[in-house]
Amino acid sequence: MFSAFFYSLVRAFSDAMSITATEAKRIASLVAPIYDVHLEKYSFKKYPAADYIRFKNAYSALRQPNNEIHDSLVWKWGHVGKLDFPPKQKALITKVETSWPDYVEFRQKRKPEKFSSVDTFRWWKEKLPSTAYITVAYITHLVHHAEPLPIIDQHNFRAMNKLLKDVRLGHAANSLPRTWADITELKAFMTKVLEYLPRKSFFEEFDRFLMMYGKSIKPRKPRKPRKARKP
After folding, report:
1. Where do runs of H (alpha helix) occur along 61-202?
2. Helix, strand, or coil here: 143?
3. Is the distance from CB of 26 to CB of 195 less than 8 angstroms?
4. pLDDT at 120 over 90
5. How far apart are CA 22 and CA 161, in angstroms?
């Protein structure tokens, strides 16, 4: 049986070459007619753009202390303006806040040219709970946003795989992103498709489109019929 580490290496190699120019062109032709419709559904009230810029600046500058951690995670979870949210998320905020100084120290001990986004991802993956993949990926995105990296989540991951299935017979994928290879695959996918969407050339804008398109195709659980009231 393959080890998880070996499997991730194999998948990273295959994913790096996962989308061809022909596939990207076909996907771009599918995306173009629906692009604006789904992009307009993105809520800047729920995800304020000015806040997002502030978070990227704070994380990439390795500010110490980083006073944006609380607000940045609340933003990611869609809780802006809410007075309360789940205790597990509050605990995760505390964990990130207490771990940030150690991360900055770890970064400062390494030469910048030898420190990559995958190093950041691995560091936070070891520090945070195994269920916090999306948060680990988000922190990595904020620190290394200039690469650029997508804000991977279940929605843009679902959108990518749906579009790949539309042009590739037998395409199979995990239902949820779990590894660093998933991030590199999504980045490669977005970069290649954007080559054939010249009027939609912004990486972050395309990321927002994929998020909203992915939400629109999310399978819905059928509602349970209501029990009839007894007379």
Report:
1. 69-76, 87-108, 117-127, 133-143, 154-167, 180-194
2. helix
3. no
4. yes
5. 16
Integer Cα distance of 164 and 189 in angstroms = 9
Cβ atoms of residues 186 and 128 within 8 Å: no
Give the span between the Cα atoms of 63 and 60, in whole angstroms. 8
CA distance 215 to 213: 5
Using CB atoms within 10 A of its CB, is residue 33 exposed (0-12), middle (13-18) or buried (19+)? Answer: exposed
Structure tokens at 30: 């599918």
Instruction: Work out whether the CA dihedral 213, 45, 186, 7 comes out positive or negative.
Output: negative
Average confidence score pLDDT of the chain = 89
pTM of the model: 0.87
Note whether 98 and 182 are within 8 A (CB): no
pLDDT at 10 over 90: no
φ and ψ at residue 183, rounded to 5 degrees = -70, -45
Give the model's pLDDT for residue 6: 38
Task: Enumerate residues 6+ apart whose C-beta is below 8 A from 8.
Answer: 179, 180, 181
- Is residue 116 over pLDDT 90? yes
Surface-to-core class of residue 181, CB atoms within 10 Å of its CB (0-12 exposed, 13-18 middle, 19+ buried)? buried
Record the tokens describing residue 229, joined without a space.
């009231």
